[in-house]
Design goal:
The complex is a heterodimer of chains A (457) and B (373).
Chain A lengths: L14 H7 L25 H6 L12 H17 L2 H9 L5 H14 L17 H14 L6 H14 L2 H12 L5 E4 L15 E5 L2 E12 L6 E7 L7 H4 E7 L5 E7 L5 E14 L3 E2 L5 H11 L7 H16 L2 E2 L2 E2 L4 H29 L7 H24 L23 H12 L10 H12 L3
Parallel strand pairs in A: 1-4
Antiparallel strand pairs in A: 2-3, 3-7, 4-5, 5-8, 6-7, 9-10
Helix pairs in contact in A: 3-6, 6-11, 7-8, 7-10, 11-12, 11-13, 12-13, 13-14, 13-15
Chain B lengths: L6 H16 L3 H9 L6 H9 L18 H14 L5 H15 L2 H12 L5 E4 L15 E5 L2 E12 L6 E6 L10 E6 L5 E7 L5 E13 L3 E2 L6 H36 L1 E2 L2 E2 L4 H30 L4 H27 L9 H14 L4 H10 L1
Helix pairs in contact in B: 1-4, 4-7, 5-6, 5-7, 7-8, 7-9, 7-10, 8-9, 9-10, 9-11
Classes of the chains: A alpha+beta (457), B alpha+beta (373).
C-alpha cells in the first residue's frame, strides 16, 4: 500500500468487503475499474493494472495475492472451527462465560493463531499489521468473539519485552494456551483519568513486596488466576517515572479480596480488588523497580491495531440492516423509513471514513512510522460509532427492549421467551457500551492527547 | 401570561416533593425494583391518602380537575424520584380511558376503587407487530350473543403484573382495519395468562395472552369500533405525563452531575474546573430549559382543548426525547466509570430517560407526527 499521493483517482476499493456490507442492495456502491467495467468478486485482482497505470504512483488498497490467500485461509478456519453457540452469543453481543472464552482461545492456540501480536520465537504469529487487520476483520465478520485481552494482548507484550528469561518461561506458555486467566490492576477509586496518581503501595520487605491498596474496574477478576498491577514503590512525592513498579500478583495470595461491581445492565463485569498486606515475591516484578510507568506506557501504545473495531461495527451495522428490513413500521419497513434510512446512511458513511483512517494507520505502521496520536482518533471515532450503532439496534427494538429478562439469552434457557432475543439484548448492550467512551483513557483524555501531541496546544 | 403555579398546584407539588425527598430514597426504590413485588403497595396507599390518584380526573368523575398542568406537577417530581408505582399505567392510561369512554355506571364502578387505591388497572394496547401504530390491532373480539370471544397477545403491558383488570384494545370487526374497540377484562378471567417481569427501568410489566376469553358485552367501553380517537387522546395525555417525568429526571441528572464534578478530584483539582466538562454541563442545562419550556407549551395546549393538542404533544415528545438522550448520555459520560454502574442513581435516571424516548412513540415518530398533524 503506497502512501496517499494525490496522483490519479482512487479507483479500486476493496469491493469484496463492500459487497459484504451492502449485499445486493440497489443503492449499493459500485466502483468502476480502470477499464470501465465493474470489478466483481469473480474478476481478477486489479492491483497489477493499477500499479502500472500510466506509470504514475497510484493509491492502491487492494490486498496482495498472498494477503488474499491468507484471508481465504482465515475464512475457512472460521467456517470450520468457530463453535456455533459461541458465534451466536457473540453476534447477539451477549456476555461470554469464562468457558466460552477459554474454549475459543484454545481453538486459536491449536491453529497457532492465539498470539497475534507476539514475536514468533515465543509462539506468536509474526504477522504483518495488514495480516493482523485481515484476521481481526474476518473474525468479527464471522461472529468470533474478541480474545480476552489481559493476558494475550496486554501483559504478555510487557513480559516478552521487559521481563527476564525466567519470567518469560514461567508465564508466557500458560498465556499462550489460555491455561491461566489474567486481569488488569491499573485504575483505582481515586486514580481514573489521572492514572499516575495511583496509591496502591508495595513496600520492600526482604525478598517480598507487601502490597496494600485497592484497584478498581477490574474486568472479570472473578475468573482471574493472576493480576498485573501498577504499584507505588517510591514515596508519594517521588516522580511517577521513578516511583511506580510493575508487579505480577497471584490472585490466590492471602490478603486479596474482591468486591463485585454490577454494571448498568445488571451484569457482574467488573470488580474492586483489595490488597491487604499481600506478600509478592520480588521475582514477580517486571524489569527494574520504579520503571513500571514507562513499561505501562509502552504497553498502551503497543496494542492499538484493533482499537477502532471497524469490522465489529460493520458486522453490527449489517445486522441492523437485516433487522430493520424485517421490522414493519406503518405501511413500510423501518429500513424504508426516511428518517431511519438517513440516520443509517450517515453512520455507514462515517464507518467507511473510519475504515480508511484505520487503513492509513496500518499503512503508516507498514512504512515504519510508529502508531502515534492516530490511535486516539481511532479510539474516539471507533467507540462513538459503535455506540451509535447500538442506538440503531435499540431503535429497531423500540419498546421490545423494555423487558429485563437477560436469563432468556442463555443457551440452555427453556422457559417462555419474551419478545425476541435481539430486542431484549439491544437495550442492555446500549446501556453497557456507554462504558466504551469512558474506558481505556476516556474520549476526553484522548482529545487532550490530540490537542497536546498533534495540535501543539 | 402567567407561568406561575396556582396555590393548589404549589401545595400539590410540595406534598409530592416532600414525599420523594424524605421517603422515596434511591435505596428504597432499588429494594422495590429488585424484589419480586411489582411495586411498593404501602406507597400506593400513601398516594391514595395524599389524593394524588385524584389528579388525573375531573371533578365530575370525583377527581381534582384533571388538568394537564396539575398532572405535570406530579409527574415531574415522580421523574426526580424515578417512581415505579403505576400512576401512569393504572390511573392516567387505564383510568383515563374509562373516564373518556365509559358510561356513568362504568365510571362509578371502576374509577371509585381506582381513586381510593384499592384497584389496580392496566391498558393492554401494544402488540409485537404494532410498533407505534395504535390502530394496528390484531387482538380480536368476536361478538357471540351477549359476550365477546377475545383472543390475542398483548406485549409489554405496563402494570400488567399487578393489574386486577385490564382495558384491552381489540378489533371487533376485521373487515374494518384501523377500527378499534375497548374491553374491560378481568385479570383472573378464564383463558387469560400473564407472564410478568420488570422492565429495564424498574417498572412492572407483563406479556398477556388471551385464549378465547369470554367477556360480557357490558364490559365494552364506548362505541364499538370507534374508540381509536379516545385512545389517541389518552395516549397524548400519557405522553405529556412522561415528558414531565423526563424533565424532572433530567434536572436531577444535571444537579447530580454538577455536584459530582465539584467533589471528584483528578490531576489535583476538582474536575468541575475543566472547561471541556463545564461547557457540556452548560449544554445539559440549556437542554433542560428547552425541555421545560416545550413541556409547558404542550400542557397549556392540552388544557385549552382547541384541537392543537396532538401536534403540541408531538412537538414536546420529539424535543424532550432529544434532550433526554443528550442529558442522559452526558450525565453518564461526565461521571466516568461510576456512571455505568448499577449502584449509581444517575445510571438509573439514564435508563428511565432512555425508556421515555421510546414509550408511546420514539423521537423520530413524533417528529414525523408533528409534520403531518
Amino acid at each position: 500500500m503506497p502512501a496517499l499521493t494525490g496522483h490519479g483517482p482512487a479507483r479500486n476499493v476493496r469491493y469484496h468487503c463492500l459487497k459484504r456490507i451492502l449485499p445486493g442492495t440497489p443503492s449499493g456502491l459500485h466502483y468502476p475499474s480502470g477499464s470501465g467495467t465493474v470489478h466483481t468478486a469473480s474478476s481478477p485482482c486489479l492491483s497489477d493494472k493499477l500499479n502500472n497505470y500510466g506509470g504514475k504512483p497510484q493509491v492502491n488498497n487492494e490486498y496482495t495475492l498472498e494477503e488474499q490467500q491468507f484471508r481465504s485461509q482465515v475464512r475457512q478456519f472460521l467456517q470450520d472451527k468457530l463453535p456455533e453457540d459461541i458465534r451466536r452469543k457473540s453476534l447477539l453481543g451477549m456476555h461470554l462465560e469464562k468457558d466460552d472464552c477459554v474454549r475459543w482461545q484454545k481453538i486459536l492456540y491449536q491453529q497457532g493463531w492465539a498470539a497475534v501480536n507476539w514475536p514468533e520465537q515465543h509462539g506468536g504469529t509474526g504477522w504483518t499489521a495488514t495480516q493482523k487487520n485481515i484476521f481481526e476483520t474476518e473474525c468479527a465478520l464471522a461472529g468470533a468473539p474478541e480474545v480476552v485481552p489481559f493476558g494475550l494482548k496486554m501483559v504478555a507484550p510487557v513480559i516478552f519485552t521487559f521481563g527476564n528469561e525466567d519470567q518469560k518461561q514461567r508465564f508466557l506458555p500458560d498465556i499462550l494456551t489460555s491455561n491461566v486467566w489474567w486481569c488488569q490492576g491499573y485504575s483505582e477509586p481515586n486514580a481514573g483519568s489521572d492514572l499516575a496518581s495511583l496509591k496502591t503501595t508495595a513496600h520492600r520487605d526482604g525478598e517480598h513486596y507487601v502490597v496494600n491498596g485497592t484497584k478498581t474496574w477490574t474486568t472479570l477478576a472473578q475468573y482471574a488466576d493472576w493480576i498485573f498491577c501498577l504499584v507505588r514503590t517510591g514515596g508519594p512525592q517521588e516522580k511517577n517515572q521513578t516511583a511506580i513498579s510493575f508487579l505480577l500478583i497471584d490472585m490466590h495470595s492471602p490478603g486479596i479480596s474482591l468486591s463485585p461491581i454490577l454494571t448498568v445492565d445488571g451484569y457482574r463485569e467488573v470488580n474492586e480488588v483489595h490488597f491487604d498486606n499481600v506478600q509478592v515475591p520480588v521475582e514477580n516484578r517486571i524489569g527494574e523497580e520504579g520503571k513500571g510507568w514507562t513499561y505501562a506506557k509502552v504497553l498502551l501504545t503497543h496494542e492499538r491495531t484493533n482499537i477502532a473495531r471497524v469490522a465489529h461495527s460493520r458486522c453490527q451495522l449489517q445486522r441492523a440492516r437485516e433487522l430493520a428490513s424485517d421490522t414493519v413500521d406503518g405501511h413500510q419497513t423501518l429500513m424504508e423509513n426516511p428518517a431511519f434510512a438517513q440516520k443509517f446512511a450517515e453512520i455507514e458513511i462515517e464507518l467507511l471514513a473510519l475504515e480508511y483512517t484505520e487503513l492509513r494507520t496500518l499503512d503508516a505502521i507498514r512504512t515504519g512510522q510508529a502508531p502515534g496520536p492516530e490511535s486516539s482518533i481511532l479510539k474516539i471515532k471507533g467507540t462513538e460509532l459503535a455506540q451509535s450503532i447500538d442506538e440503531l439496534h435499540m431503535e429497531i427494538a423500540a419498546c421490545g427492549g423494555l423487558p429485563y429478562v437477560p436469563w432468556q439469552l442463555e443457551q440452555d434457557f427453556d422457559g417462555e421467551r419474551i419478545g425476541t432475543d435481539s430486542a431484549v439484548n439491544s437495550w442492555l448492550r446500549y446501556f453497557n457500551n456507554r462504558k466504551s467512551s469512558i474506558y481505556g483513557g476516556s474520549n476526553e483524555i484522548q482529545k487532550n492527547i490530540i490537542c497536546k501531541a498533534v495540535l501543539g496546544l | 401570561m402567567d407561568f406561575s403555579f396556582s396555590e393548589e398546584q404549589q401545595l400539590l407539588r410540595d406534598s409530592v416533593t416532600r414525599f420523594i425527598r424524605q421517603d422515596y430514597t434511591f435505596d428504597t426504590r432499588q429494594k422495590t425494583v429488585t424484589s419480586s413485588e411489582p411495586f411498593n403497595r404501602e406507597y400506593w396507599k400513601t398516594f391514595a391518602e395524599l389524593g394524588w390518584l385524584l389528579v388525573p380526573f375531573s371533578e365530575d368523575e370525583g377527581g381534582l380537575g384533571g388538568f394537564a398542568v396539575d398532572l405535570i406537577v406530579v409527574m415531574e417530581e415522580f421523574g426526580r424520584g424515578m417512581v415505579v408505582e403505576p400512576l401512569l399505567a393504572s390511573a392516567i392510561l387505564a383510568g383515563g380511558l374509562i373516564a373518556e369512554t365509559g358510561s356513568d355506571d362504568q365510571k362509578h364502578d371502576w374509577l371509585t376503587p381506582l381513586m381510593d387505591g384499592s384497584l389496580q388497572l392496566a391498558f393492554a394496547f401494544a402488540e409485537p407487530q404494532q410498533r407505534f401504530d395504535l390502530g394496528n390491532v390484531a387482538t380480536s373480539a368476536e361478538p357471540a350473543g351477549d359476550h365477546y370471544i377475545l383472543s390475542g397477545h398483548k406485549t409489554v403491558v405496563l402494570n400488567g403484573g399487578a393489574a386486577d383488570a385490564m382495558v384491552v384494545s381489540v378489533s371487533t370487526d376485521s373487515s374494518k382495519p384501523g377500527s378499534v374497540s375497548l374491553l374491560l377484562v378481568d385479570g383472573k378471567a378464564s383463558g387469560v395468562t400473564r407472564t410478568s417481569y420488570k422492565t429495564v427501568d424498574g417498572h412492572n410489566a407483563a406479556e398477556v395472552y388471551f385464549d378465547r376469553v369470554r367477556v360480557p358485552r357490558a364490559n365494552l367501553l364506548g362505541a364499538e369500533s370507534e374508540t381509536l380517537p379516545a385512545i389517541e387522546k389518552v395516549i397524548d395525555r400519557a405522553t405529556l405525563a412522561i415528558c414531565a417525568e423526563a424533565v424532572g429526571a433530567m434536572e436531577s441528572a444535571l444537579e447530580k452531575t454538577v455536584e459530582y464534578t465539584k467533589t471528584r478530584k483528578q490531576f489535583g483539582v476538582s474536575i468541575s474546573t475543566f472547561q471541556a466538562l463545564q461547557h457540556r454541563m452548560a449544554d445539559m442545562f440549556i437542554e433542560c430549559q428547552q425541555a421545560r419550556s416545550i413541556l409547558m407549551m404542550a400542557a397549556m395546549q392540552l388544557d385549552t382543548s382547541n384541537g392543537a393538542a396532538p401536534k403540541a404533544v408531538s412537538a414536546a415528545k420529539s424535543r424532550i426525547g432529544k434532550a433526554a438522550r443528550r442529558v442522559g448520555q452526558e450525565a453518564v459520560q461526565v461521571h466516568g466509570g461510576i456512571g455505568v454502574t448499577d449502584e449509581l442513581d444517575v445510571a438509573h435516571l439514564f435508563k428511565r430517560l432512555t425508556a421515555i424516548q421510546y414509550l408511546f412513540g420514539s423521537t423520530d415518530y413524533h417528529t414525523q407526527r408533528f409534520i403531518s398533524a
